[in-house]
Amino acid sequence: MLKLEKGKLLEMHEKMVKIRKFEMKVEQLHLQGILPGLKHLYIGEEAVAVGVISNLRKDDYIASTHRGHGHLIAKGGDIKKMMAELYGKKTGYCKGKGGSMHISDINLGILGANGIVGANIPIAGGAALSAKLGGTDQVAVSFFGDGGANEGIFHEGINLASVWKLPVIFICENNLYAISTHQPMVTAIPNIGDRASSYGIPSFIVNGMDVMAVYEAANKAVIRARDGKGPTLIECKTYRFKGHYVGEGTRELTYRSRKELEEWEKRCPIKRFQSKLIDENILTQSLVKQINYQIDSEIEEAVKFAEQSPYPEPQEALDDLFF
Amino acid sequence: MREITYAEAAVEAIQEEMEKDSSIFYMGEDVGRFGGVYGTTKGLWERFGDERVRDAPLSEAAIIGYALGAAMTGMRPMAEIMFADLLCLAMDQIVNQVAKIRYMSGGRIKVPLVIRVPLGGLRRAAAQHSQHLESWFVHVPGLKIVAPSSPYDVKGLLKTVIREDNPVISFEHILLYKTKGEVPEEEYTLPIGKAEVKREGRDVTVVTYSLMVHRCLSAAEKLYEEGIDAEVIDLRSLSPIDIETVINSVKKTNKVATVHQACLRGGLGAEIGTSIVEAAFDYLDSPIKRIGGLNVPVPFSPPLEDFVVPTEERIAREIKEILQ
């Protein structure tokens, strides 16, 4: 089934586990009242970030969303600096000025999570324009959800990328809900990927719970982009196992049923990938345990780093506005 | 010295900088072979071609967003939005993205981006093509703003803002594009945040910018015939504002009027006036006079529009009110 090297597959698996465990820790710390602010967890959607970003190089760009932790980890983000940022500490990625929804690492090509839904679409397009004008073969990826696909900028951003044949890949993480609105309530057609034909670009509609399906679609899109053939839209059908934000609690049951949630949980992307890898003798139960242990301790270290880091001095609020 | 138009001076600045720095490119609506609706880019496409002078679709949000993404990744884009009114279509990208990226990143991402915005009433273009919305953007931390009033200033300021590593909006009054003025052949730049005393005077300070500089200067000449010697200050930059030059003048004249074409309510006159009160209250001999557009949308019919925009006569008359 899998044409990839064993090492690559294990790395993808490990990243998915790392995202899951990071998010579970964030949820716990938030509910304990330790982390301030808003958190949107990526639990359930790990196959999308990892499947796409495993195709990218360090010098490729991603533009992420309010639900961005998964993308950052998949692109190689340092979880110590991420956790410190979530704590609002000076050692965080943004020195405490950004928080969960604005983490960026320009050295890793992470143009930033973004608190405005859909707004990263032209930003990724602009990074792709840089690559084109600079004559490099870098690509840029924009992530957005089914909600973002209903913003006007979706149309403006994708049309322009197509007209200019830019090396950008648009990833729609369709988790079926824009906070509480179910996709059929607010979107005229069932497949957002079908909109690609309006822009004259190819699209793939894939099972977003299957990391290899996502990987393979993204692989074709990345090759196409590097070859100068222009953008691709990929719709990944996925699901968030948690509420829109941490703290939503049982309110999620106003818009989706427990039965639906349980159905999707059975399709857990990590369990699915693990059992495939075990079937192919790439992974063993004991290796899974070992990986879990190793990631748990990395996360504990990140928490410790964040907790021991100082807060910024209040007057540092006035720094970093201009170059 | 040679005289060229405001539009020519602006194009010269861009052309000279584009020749020196290959990371500069220009995008906007009708900026390519058409040369910009007001000649904002005349000749650039012929010189630099499709790649560096890019005609964009009518997608203002995408124009700004693409320029931002390019700025974040090593380019130095210039994005033109054809009218200030159309900035409304790009507000999220300008206010939530462009202005915030550097700060939100803890200062780690640089955004060298110029947004050029032709604007302005008195063209019988009515309510959706005549607005002066500059005070909205002055209110947003993270943006620098210039509003040059002469060919000399537009060239010097554009050269500076193109080299600036922060986002800058250049508001350029459409009626200024065809005006002529002296512009030296040799290289020069003007600093952001520095006002110019356009006319020295003893009796009253008039603080203004953009097209209104010229109306204020005419009004000052009229007032001079009546024995009133007005000092006219052209702010040139609206963010940051060179309040020091204003305060120094007020300390000398003890009276001040602010003049802008934008609606009076919530306009920059209020900001400048308050800054003067905070810094030089004891020097004021009379209340500050705010002169501005009347608080209605810009109407179409010439007598209506002429009524709502400050005229030389109104400026002179209202200034006299604080001298009595």
Descriptive account of the structure:
The complex is a heterodimer of chains A (about 325) and B (about 325). By secondary structure, chain A is an alpha/beta fold. Chain A has helices at about 5-30, 45-55, 70-75, 80-85, 120-135, 150-165, 185, 210-225, 260-265, 270-280, 285-310, and strands at about 60-65, 140-145, 170-175, 175-180, 180, 205, 230-235. In chain A, the strands form two sheets. Chain A has a five-stranded parallel sheet with strand order 1-2-3-7-6, with helices on both faces. Chain A has a two-stranded antiparallel ribbon with strand order 4-5. The termini of chain A are far apart. Chain B has helices at about 5-20, 45-50, 60-70, 90-100, 100-105, 135-140, 150-165, 210-225, 245-255, 270-280, 300-310, 310-324, and strands spanning about 5, 25-30, 55, 75-80, 115-120, 145, 170-175, 180, 195-200, 205-210, 230-235, 235-240, 255-265, 290-295. In chain B, about 55% of the residues are buried. The longest helix of chain B has 15 residues, at about 5-20. The radius of gyration of chain B is 19 Å and the shape is globular.
Question: Main attributes?
Answer:
heterodimer, A: 323 residues, alpha/beta, Rossmann fold, 5-stranded parallel beta sheet, two-stranded antiparallel sheet, 11 helices, 7 strands, globular, B: 324 residues, 2 domains, 7-stranded mixed beta sheet, 5-stranded mixed beta sheet
